[in-house]
Amino acid sequence: MSAPPAETDIAGALAWARGHIQPSDARLLLRHVCRASAAHLAAWPEEVLHVAQWRTFQQLVERRTAGEPIAYLTGEREFYGRPFLVNASVLIPRPETELLVELSIARFAAVHRPRVLDLGTGSGILAITLALELDRPEVTATDISRDALALANTNALRLGAGITFLWSDWYTLLRRNDRFQLIVANPPYIVEDDPHLAQGDLRFEPLTALASGPDGLRALAAIIAGAGRHLEDGGWLFLEHGYNQADAVRALLADAGFTHIASWKDIADIDRVCAGCWAG
Asked: pTM for the complete prediction?
């Protein structure tokens, strides 16, 4: 990297950063460091950065140059219109996952106090969004990572969502008589030797939240197989899955006894969510 000047203003910091990273990334990082809006950066380009701000910005640019995701650098990513804290213990929220939320809300919009289970909650985006969007739901969220649960709990407190968090490998630590009307999950579903895992943002995200066996279906199969023990009759299971897994997931749902099985495409016109109704 080119040596940065000893001190600089907003315009100079952005000009230096643009020599190493995308201009949009540079602006996001400088806004984060300065706690300033895009309008402020544009209106006051001659504003001199404090020494600590300039040093921090340089460090973030260096990390971004190495490929570290912007969300981990700023510690935040928006999902369904709300800011969620993120770190390297959880996946970065992605826009296509909002489809899972929209479908769940549409199915349960008229249900008062639905009982909801979010498996593998990560940063808590599904559990928290459903807790805030549905009609006074009772939401339980599980994860095998204690670090992820701690972050999800922090997000829930910041956003005012009441959720029961449980350290559990899928259903393992649920009580035998725990029953839900809705189970949602965005589990790991990438093939474990997929070369994309060594590229881009995926290099920095937790592998256990990305890859799932030689066909990518291990977690999805486990969730589907165990869902009937924890769904009420007429309850629904909604699952996000990989771009080429819709047929396999529908088959798993059918083999497990689900009915009204359906699939939906995401914003990129790719099959992304499957669901089924539990007939008991």
From this structure: 0.92
Residue that the structure tokens 């909604």 belong to:
238
Q: Who contacts 203 (Cβ-Cβ below 8 Å, separation ≥6)?
A: 67, 197
What H or E segment, with its residue span, contains residue 277? strand 271-278
User: What span, in angstroms and rounded, lies between the C-alpha atoms of 218 and 249?
Assistant: 11
Strands (E), 3-137: 76-79, 82-85, 115-119
Instruction: Name the one residue in this structure whose structure tokens are 């005012």.
Output: 160
d(CA 159, CA 151): 12
Inform me whether the pLDDT recorded for 4 exceeds 80: no
Joined together, the tokens standing for residue 175 give 């009580």
Reduced to 3 states (helix: H, G, I; strand: E, B; else coil), residue 6 is coil
- The pLDDT tens digits for 252-271 are 999 999 999 999 999 999 99
Element (H, E) at 40: helix 38-43
CA–CA separation, 176 and 135 (whole Å):
26
The answer to whether the CB of 177 falls within 8 A of the CB of 202 is no
Angstrom distance (rounded) from CA 248 to CA 221: 10
The angle that helices 246-255 and 218-227 make with each other, rounded to 10 degrees, is 30
DSSP-assigned beta bridge partners for residue 211: 190
- Token representation of residue 1: 């990297």
Structure tokens at 265: 């495409």
